Queue: 2 jobs
Job 1
Amino acid sequence: MGYNPSMKFTDRTRRASNVVAAIQGQLPEEIRPLAAAVPVHYQPQPDAGVLAEGFEPDILGLFSGNPLGTEISHSDPAPPHILLYLDNLWDLAEGDPAVFAEEVRLTYLHELGHYLGWDEDDLAARDLD
């Protein structure tokens, strides 16, 4: 499949959720239940609150909440979750479904790494930066 600039958000969401499900099934056995416990939300782009926190408008994904094994903080009492910004991922992929799937995979694993408590150096060591 080639470039498709007009793929609807619902189709992007379906493709992205299929990629995430496939990745979760391929994770090491000890990590699978941890990954499955962290909800993944799909949004077209970051909302005003995310941008107000200083994130760039073209951010691909975001982990929000407290990393595994840490106490819930009063500043972020929401349960952990991963956000994937599908319009930004699609734009980065230049409308190529195969590149989109790879970018979803990398972004999901990057954000999952934050949940697991990995810092940017840990992510880079795993080629997830």
Note: The mean pLDDT is 88.
Job 2
Amino acid sequence: MRWMFLLLLILNVFYYVWHQQEAPMQAKEIMSLSPYKSGQQDIQLLSESKKAAAASQDCLYLGGYPTAQPLAVLVQRLANDKIPAVQRQLRPEQGGGYWLRLGVPGEALPDEGVVQRLSRDINDLKHQIMPCEGIASGE
């Protein structure tokens, strides 16, 4: 009976040591974020942010053709949909190519459904959102 008692005592000691090793770590105190957010306390709408103003200077370009001939069909399709388009040629150091700028700079970009419908109807039509000025030359 004495041996049984010593065996249970030793098992309890081993269980205690094993259980202490698995004990959860002490919780760390987390600092408040208020010192880091001192400049931005108010909520802003996306339209009021500086990024939205920069994004409004982006235009949607369609094309990417080496010659201007395929753009004639595209210009007519866009005229039927009453979407203004201006033909531009990319600078040769940027790869060149003929593109159509859709819409008017500073206004909202045309609907994505129009672009998808045109891409489905016209083979090899590329579309990109690029800055309105600075990439494409005037002529």
Note: The radius of gyration is 33 Å.
